[in-house]
Amino acid sequence: MKYPITVYGDPLLRKKAKPIEKKTEELDEIIENMWETMYYSDGIGLAAPQVGKSIRLFLVDASSAADEEPELKDFKKVFINPEIIETAGEEWIMNEGCLSLPEIREDVKRTDVVRIKYLDENFEPHEEEFSGFAGRVIQHEYDHLEGILFIDYLSPLRKRLLKSKLRNIAIGKVTPHYRINVPVR
């Protein structure tokens, strides 16, 4: 089942998500539906708050970047109750977009390396370090669990210039090819 994407203006996107207590059939179904939603929406990552669920879960498929980073050829992971332990390395700028902010793309500065603890879809614990494109996508999706959007990294001037676009998203005056859940006013 494809979920509608929760868009800018919904207070859920600004909440810190709650930990997941245990593996359940319902959680497996949410993960399956999130993969379907992400692929349908042409995303490379998706966090549970983006589909209206305030739980600490996100998934990433960075395999689309395998041409530039061959080690990402089969990079498809589920992150449950993730916790960033450390970010390090050079800061670099990359143009980012977000399914919850349709029609907005901006240059965002992030560190190159992220060390993260998480549970996979089988509730097996992992502690890994990611860099490059995968590291960036993981940091972006993790931010969603903390109530942070990529526009929060922009300068005050840049945010002011985006004000009308953000207002249009919040009132549903955007036309992405995927279903969106517009905040109730």
From TrEMBL:
Removes the formyl group from the N-terminal Met of newly synthesized proteins. Requires at least a dipeptide for an efficient rate of reaction. N-terminal L-methionine is a prerequisite for activity but the enzyme has broad specificity at other positions. Its cofactor is Fe(2+). This is Peptide deformylase. It is an enzyme of class 3 (hydrolase). One of its GO terms (biological process) is translation. Binds 1 Fe(2+) ion. Its EC number is 3.5.1.88. Pfam families: Pep_deformylase (PF01327). The active site is at E141. PANTHER family: PEPTIDE DEFORMYLASE. Belongs to the polypeptide deformylase family. Keywords: Hydrolase, Iron, Metal-binding, Protein biosynthesis. It catalyses: N-terminal N-formyl-L-methionyl-[peptide] + H2O = N-terminal L-methionyl-[peptide] + formate. GO terms for molecular function: metal ion binding; peptide deformylase activity. Fe cation binds at C98, H140, H144.
